[in-house]
Design goal:
There is one protein chain. This protein is of the alpha+beta class. It has a domain of 120 residues. Helix content is 48%, strand content 13%. It is built from four helices and five strands, in the order αββααβαββ. The strands form two sheets. Strands 1-2-3 form a three-stranded antiparallel β-sheet. β1 and β2 form a beta hairpin. The longest helix is centred in the N-terminal third of the chain and has 26 residues. It is globular. The model has no long low-confidence stretch (mean pLDDT 90).
Length: 180
């Protein structure tokens, strides 16, 4: 599962970084580009804040939280036992890392860099590929949680080998075990 996780993360991260490089190159000092009329427009924004451009004064805090998230995701990836979880954490790592990269390498300064956003929908904040990856990961994580699939691939309803329920509904326990 670690290979799936790493391939998903690396590929999705590359797509995000390349899309931002192209957006900056093609949209800086140029008019917006209508892709689907007013429904989808390419509009370059350098975002110092979080989602919906909130918290613009807390860029360094967001950078620290992103670094912590990358560490936690990498730590959790060691326990992967499900392809769906590998995809979810791979997409999440790519999205968080993509926006973190902007915060680390873009102006105005390291740890305070502005995130490149360029997809604009009506009545919605401008966003980027990393944001889409984070949302896709969230959907996959919610699905796995509702399905009862744990990170290691086991199901929340699986019974342990140490305990079984007989036909009367009572629990058989091995010697030395306490009742739940």
């Amino acid at each position: 599962m670690l290979v799936v996780f790493a391939l998903v993360a690396a590929t999705a991260y590359a797509v995000d970084v390349i899309s931002k490089i192209v957006a900056v190159d093609r949209l800086t000092d140029h008019p917006d580009v209508q892709i689907v009329g007013d429904l989808l427009v390419l509009h370059l924004v350098r975002n110092p804040g979080a989602a919906f451009s909130t918290g613009t004064a807390y860029t360094q805090l967001f950078t620290g939280l992103a670094i912590a998230a990358v560490v936690v995701i990498c730590y959790l990836s060691r326990r992967l036992g499900s392809v769906a979880w590998a995809w979810a954490l791979g997409l999440l790592l790519a999205g968080v890392s993509g926006n973190l990269t902007d915060r680390l390498v873009r102006e105005p300064d390291p740890l305070r860099g502005h995130v490149i956003d360029f997809f604009m929908l009506p009545h919605w904040p401008v966003f980027n590929v990393a944001d889409m990856l984070i949302n896709a990961a969230a959907v996959l994580i919610v699905i796995q949680v509702f399905r009862g699939v744990r990170l290691d691939g086991t199901r929340a309803t699986d019974q342990t080998e140490d305990q079984s329920v007989d036909d009367t509904g009572t629990t058989d326990q091995h010697p030395g075990e306490r009742a739940p």
